[in-house]
Amino acid sequence: MTTDEYDLADSRSDAESAAAEAATTEPDERDARYLRLAADFENFKRRKTQELSDVRRYESEDAALALLPVLDNLRRAVEHAGEAGAEEFFVSGLQLVVREFETALERIGVVPVPAVGERFDPAIHDAIAAEESEEVEEDMVVAELVPGYRLHDRLLRPAIVRVVRPRSAPSGN
């Protein structure tokens, strides 16, 4: 055999061994890619299921936000109807409508935010006035001016409240 023949035989054996090595690593890479793709698809399905669940759970949010001012106005009408000398049957009829309205909102998951007597929480309360008192140790809600509401665990509207806070100690400078 000549030198050229040896070189040709060597290059064939190198090419054959490289092809054999590639044939064994390609299935491993393909399997790993397949597993990653399958895991990505499972994550995608889980994310989409959660998004659809959230959409269904909060689909009444826009309607509730549109109806809350109507409920506020009905409550104001009940308050002022008695002051204006309206007939008792008219006032009781308005009160019945308010109760039915509240019940309907509760059925779709809208519940009031606790306010009066609760510790002030800026995440659910919006304070528009504050008083100082020596009788409290932390900020407490003493009056609810406009009720706040949640839809399930999401805040729709914060309660507008008046707060009493501990009297600050005079500084001894």
What do these coordinates show?
- 57% of the residues lie in helices and 20% in strands.
- The protein has 173 residues and is of the alpha+beta class.
- It folds into 3 domains: 1-52; 60-108; 111-167, Head domain of nucleotide exchange factor GrpE (Nucleotide Exchange Factor Grpe, Chain A, domain 2).
- Helix 2 (61-83) packs antiparallel against helix 3.
- The longest helix is centred in the first third of the chain and has 55 residues, at 3-57.
- The model has no long low-confidence stretch (mean pLDDT 80).
What's the helix and strand layout?
Blueprint: H1 3-57, H2 61-83, H3 88-107, E1 110-112, E2 125-133, E3 140-146, E4 149-151, E5 154-157, E6 159-166
Parallel strand pairs: 2-6
Antiparallel strand pairs: 1-4, 3-6, 4-5
Q: For the CA atoms, what is the radius of gyration? A: 35 Å
The major sheet is characterized as: 3 strands, antiparallel
Outline type = elongated
| Unreliable sequence segments | none
Distance between the termini: 107 Å
- What's the architecture of the largest domain, going by CATH? Roll
Main CATH class of the largest domain: Mainly Beta
Sheet with most strands: strand arrangement: 1-4-5
Q: Kindly report the name of the CATH homologous superfamily of the largest domain.
A: Head domain of nucleotide exchange factor GrpE
What average pLDDT do the residues reach? Answer: 80
CATH fold-level label of the largest domain? Nucleotide Exchange Factor Grpe, Chain A, domain 2
Question: How much helicity do the residues have?
Answer: 55-70%
Proportion of beta-strand residues: 15-25%
Number of domains: 3
Order of helices and strands: HHHEEEEEE
Give the oligomeric state of the chains in this entry, treating copies of one chain as homo and distinct chains as hetero: single chain
Structural class: alpha+beta
| SS elements, strand count | 6
Total number of helices: 3
